Amino acid sequence: MFIRKAGLVRSFLGSFSSISTQLRYASSSAASSFDYQADLPKIPIENIRNIGIIAHIDAGKTTTTERMLFYSGLISRIGNVDEGDTVTDYLTEEKDRGITIQSAAVTVPWNRHKINVLDTPGHADFAFEVIRSLRVLDGAVTILDAVAGVEAQTEKVWRQAKDLGIPLIAYINKMDREGAGYGRSVREIVGRLGTRALLVNIPYFVEDPITKQMIFKGVIDVVERKLLSWETSDRSNEDGRKVSVIDLDLETDQNAELRKECKDARQALIEQLGDYDEHVIDSFLETEDYMQVSSSIIKDALRRATIGRYATPILCGSSFKNIGVQPLMDAIIDYLPSPLEANPPEVVSSPLFGSIKHRKGRTQEKQDDHSTLPVSMDPQLGCVINNDKHLTASLAFKVISHPNRGLMTFVRVYSGKLQPNSTVINTRNGDKIKIGKLLIMNGDIPQEVKSLTAGNIGVITGTDEISTGDTLISHSASKNVNKIPKREASARLLPIAIPPPVFSVSIEPTTVADRRKLESSLQVLLREDPSLRLTFDDESGQMILSGMGELHLEITRDRLITDMKVNADIGKVRVTYKETITQQTEHVTKSIASPDNSGSFSVTLSVDSFEGPAEDTDLADKENAQLLEYDNNIVVFDKHAAPEFIRKALNIDSEWPLPISYEHIIGAMISGITGALQVGGQVARLPLHSVVVKIKKWSLPVEATSTAPLLQSTRLAVREALESLPPNASTILEPLMKVSVFVNDEDLGVVTQDLMSARNAKITDIDEQDNLSTGGDALWARGQAEKTYIPYDPTLQYIKQSQSGGKKVIKGEAPLRDMIGYLSKIRSLTKGSGFYSMEYCGMQRATSDRVKQILDE
Ligand SMILES: Nc1nc2c(ncn2[C@@H]2O[C@H](COP(=O)(O)OP(=O)(O)OP(=O)(O)O)[C@@H](O)[C@H]2O)c(=O)[nH]1
User: Fold this and answer.
1) 420 CB contacts (<8 Å, ≥6 apart)?
2) CATH number at residue 538
3) Which of 392, 592, 731, 827 can bridge 416 by disulfide, Cβ–Cβ 3.0-4.6 Å?
């Protein structure tokens, strides 16, 4: 059956060119009628797609993005990851290692639409890059390696996208590789990621006459009833622009088998969609022929089902061999939402206060809370604050220092119209910022634009005052930002949560003369990457740089030393420890007289601690609570903590009575607290973690012109409160990781034993790998996977070969300190077959034995 089929296909192909060769997708023809410079900025919002490419490391994200740029006509030759010449991986470290480190944002025109693509990194150390990209995206493409199937990082990014309510398309890449498993990958998508599959296209193979291997040649477009095939012979130097198309809608002598495959897949697709959308069923009932249901009805239903997150369209291809990328680009346009159809962003009413819990994610439940905020959502424009269409709200999601272009701040505009050379309010601190030119990135080429309208992603230049996560408010009708009402001027699009850095290195300038350059270079890196953190050890005078993982810090070191040519001595990568207190302090009051004796700056406060994430504590529900930027610390202001004249002024919408803004006053106290907690605790002077500073009262003179004395008194009060505790009222906290180890049955015992004894792991679960599901209801997902339609699949032969025995996953929690170097250990314990993934799950209090070990270290 197998060979006969392949033979039929070949002979069919042989006669094909004489029947009806069609050339589609030729970028030159698409480009000829489209003037990028003039037409791109004019594309209406409904034709914009803001999408991310997310996946496990090496699945082929950069390779696929590069093809998209090429087919759109933006670049004239395809760059190659392995040769280090792709558009999106432009950092030296990316080229050298062949991995993506920074998400690159490129704009790709396609079929009168504009796809803003963010190519994100796959390595777990750069998870923050993925999170911050997902925050500004309306949809995403998950790429899978057809050999590896669903991998650890695939599950993680899928879950993150799902939590943010982002519709997804799955693309099974590397179909050309030996061992590629199409059917297996589809089942894993359903069973492990917990979704329904909509097979938009299915693979098409041709048997090689000499080797008898099945060669991946193209796809059957199930929706359009067409066979698309690509010429991939290396000698012909094809770049995949030419696609041969054969219609399968009408039966001929030659196309019977392919048509049957298409029909079976269509039946499965229509039945799956029919459960969601009755139009499809109605259309089918008219003729009772699956091939007759119109492609536009199927497409509409597919779009609704994807945007409604009912199911996931699945496509396949081989980006490296230039097969299947154009259909993927079509699917992005056809099935992923425009900014008008995407989830509106969550808005918090004030940068200062508001329940911390609202800032965690963007779930349905949380969206309902919008009604209580002084912000209304307009579905037509994504998000409009107080229905003033001139009010412009943008979110800065990325700041980079480009080697040639200087500082670039990437923003997503959510409402109104951002204009160049205008003034915007940074709602984080109330600062008014004059911005310079506005750009969009056509591929890697910046193009200056006259404005950036709602739904767009672009670049602000000319300022270094914006950080990742800042909300920028402006008014497109009036240049005067002072006229923007106070509430709107402090509204914040959901800030981007920064994961805690769990590894650190010490850094010192090689000579005194090198200090300046080191500090300014570090500032550049910190602005670019908020998941890096710099602290100072007062005792040793060293700078401590913390990051998400060993690779993250290695790459930062390379950027400092190699790219920025800084002379510095960088220590060994170590785990980051913290301290916390185990008992509440007394109330402490600190006052500082104002320099002109007109009054005093005074604060009364106490410090306590808690366990677990700040968002999950009762404190997070308090109205006047704020999560501090670092270390899971909270500050809570008593309801009547502010002096009476300030409370009055806050209640009425009149002129603010003080020379200093309220944001600056609160900001000063928060800086005082942050500084004092950084100095560290009593055990090893490590920064304090999981503490809550409760401000009972504060005051300042009505005429105050500076907040410095308030900052200072707050800092002193926190320090005095902490130092009043007995020495045994503090302990060390160490990072705890959630670990999943994947092994063959025969290695289960030895790996579990090693985890428990040498790694101090607590095992929570051992299960079959096939039973994994992140989709919430594992049983449901498994049932779905079993009944999912899989087309004729010659790759099934590889599964049988590779499935020699059962595979298990061991799940547990282990201290990060004991997991260092685990990759080589697991490899040696399993003869190279085992692997593992881990993610931070919190800080745990160390036992006294461990405190001793850590201190000795
Ligand atoms: N055989 C084959 N190799 C591919 C395909 N797509 C990508 N590759 C190769 O896979 C490797 C990784 O590709 P990338 O595009 O860098 O993958 P990535 O997902 O961007 O990787 P990170 O950004 O580091 O996570 C490179 O060696 C590519 O040449 C494909 O379709 N077939």
Assistant:
1) 435, 436, 437, 438, 448, 449, 450, 451
2) 3.30.70.870
3) 392
Q: Predicted ipTM?
A: 0.98
Of all protein residues, the one whose alpha carbon is nearest to atom 2 of ligand 1 is 174
- Residue span of the structural domain in which 558 resides: 503-575
* Residue-level pLDDT at 585: 95
Site to substitute for ligand 1 among 54, 81, 99, 325, most atoms within 8 A of C-beta: 81
pLDDT, position 367: 33
Is 341 inside a domain boundary?
no
Same domain, 232 and 379: no
* Mean pLDDT computed over 266-276: 93
Ligand 1 atom, smallest distance to 56 CA: 25
Q: What is the DSSP string of 281-314?
A: HHHHHHH--GGGS-HHHHHHHHHHHHHTTS-EEE
Distance CA(87)–CA(289), nearest Å, equals 46
Is 55 known to sit in a ligand binding site?
yes
- Whether residues 160 and 200 fall in one domain: yes
Query: Which residue, by CA, sits nearest to atom 23 of ligand 1?
Result: 100
Whether 358 has a binding-site annotation, put simply, is no
What is the per-residue pLDDT for 95? Answer: 64
CA distance 22 to 163: 42
Ligand 1 neighbours (beta carbon < 6 A): 55, 57-63, 81-82, 98-100, 121-123, 173-174, 176-177, 318-321
Which of 668, 693, 724 terminates a domain? The answer is 724
Q: How far is the CA of 477 from the centre of ligand 1 (A)?
A: 47
**Do 540 and 423 belong to one domain?**
no
In which band, very low, low, confident or very high, does the pLDDT at 535 lie, cut at 50, 70 and 90? confident
Residue 62 is assigned to a ligand binding site: yes
Cα 332 to middle of ligand 1, angstroms: 20
Can you tell me the distance from the alpha carbon of 217 to that of 318, in angstroms, rounded to the nearest whole number?
9
Looking at the structure, tell me whether residues 541 and 682 fall in a common domain: no
Residue 135's pLDDT is what?
Answer: 81
- Ligand 1: centre distance to CA 483 (Å): 51
Quickly count helices (H) and strands (E) in the chain. 25, 39
Q: What's residue 315's pLDDT?
A: 98
pTM of the model: 0.76
Find out whether 86 is annotated in a ligand binding site: no
